[in-house]
Amino acid sequence: MTPEKDETQTKLKLSVVRDVSIVATLVVLGLYAGSAFLIPLTMALLVNVLIIALSDRIIALTRMPVWLANLAGVTVVLAGLFVIMYILGSQATQFARTIGTYENQFDETVNRVTGLVGNDVTAFIRDNLINIDMSFIARVLLGSATSLLNQFFLISLYVAFLMAERLAFRKKIQLAAGDPKTGIEFAAILDAISFSLQRYVGVKTLISLITASISYSVFKILGLEFAETWAVLTFALNFIPSIGSIIAVIFPSLIALVQFESIGPFLVIILGCGTIQFLIGNFLDPAFLGRSLNMSTFLVILALMFWTTIWGLIGAFLSVPLTVCILIVFSHIPALRPVAILMSLDGKLGEDIRPGNAS
Question: Membrane-spanning regions, if any (predicted)?
């Protein structure tokens, strides 16, 4: 190969890297700048996926007409979503306002802990936690929930139109593609995305509901304040990979440590609910999801950090579904397929993510 050809190929590679970098930068800036519009739309798409999964299951079990199953799915999902947002937007806001009373009880709690862990650990706790503005943290964590409550009707409007165009959308894809082969390939991508998202959203919703129900029973038996809020947060935080279940145990256990004079309720929550989270996260969750997502563990953490940086707390909840979409799209584009292989768990694509072939 001549030096001129080598130089030409090098310039082409550099130009490709440059163009990809520019496009990636513009996409990230667009996601950040358009978050106010994109977040409710993305939430509506995921809610629509959950409704379709529920309506399809209703049809399979009851042979109900499609329109009636869709209506039942919309009613159940939107009602559940409204209840969740209402609790987070009302009771959780009340908690954020009264968290100052817990700060006043912090010194008493530290004194009780002294006899259990020793003066050195107590000094560390006092030095590192006493300066934390708990009310600010509470407002940051719960502000996104209140914002979602305000956007509930917008999300519902999006869902209504998405459901209305569900059947016509596939026909429009075929007409827009022009070439039948291109239309089939594009429809295959959408089917794979829809299948993986239905599997993920449906399974995670069921598992999170089971976890939240068990945790709520424990909170009510112990008499923990704002038990409904902690149960809803347990349900929601289970959608955040890896760290979500840990946070779901830490917050109520710390409140129990401050609220009760004895350390017993704290131990019950930290050990009991922690064990439940561990068992469900390491056995029940993988058993239901299997290898259908086929995502690298490192990619899950990386996606969590990226989407949280771009869209805040809501981005953390949406990190896995959004990354699943990206992985599937990349796997169907020849030029981006090597990137999809790197993003996958074991490097196997195609059959692992197509409907009817996921384990």
Answer: 22-54, 66-88, 136-164, 206-224, 230-251, 263-284, 304-330
For the stretch 166-183, pLDDT in tens is 777 777 777 776 677 777
**What is the DSSP annotation of 144-180?**
HHHHHHHTHHHHHHHHHHHHHTHHHHHHHHHHHH-SH
Burial letters for 6-40: b for 16+ Cβ neighbours within 10 Å, e otherwise? Answer: eeeeeeeeeeeeeeeeeeeeeeeeebeeebeebbb
Contact 188/351 with Cβ under 8 angstroms? no
Residue count (the chain):
359
d(CA 77, CA 9): 54
Residue 16 and residue 358: Cα distance in Å, rounded? 34
Domain limits, the chain: 34-164, 178-359
- The answer on pLDDT for 112 being more than 80 is no
In one-letter notation, the amino acid at residue 134 is: M
Residue found by looking up tokens 């976890």 in the block = 211
The tokens for 236 are 């929601």
329-333-335-341 Cα dihedral, nearest 10 degrees: 50
What phi, psi does 345 have (nearest 5°)?
-75, -45
What is the predicted pLDDT for the residue at 216?
92
Cα Rg of the chain, angstroms: 24
Which helix (H) or strand (E) covers residue 257, if one does? Answer: helix 244-259
Q: What angle do CA 128, 129, 130 make, to 5 degrees?
A: 105
Give residue for tokens 């056995």. Answer: 283
Q: At what angle do helices 66-104 and 244-259 cross, to 10 degrees?
A: 40
Cα distances (angstroms) measured from residue 320 to each of 196, 223, 243, 295, 350: 11, 34, 13, 9, 19
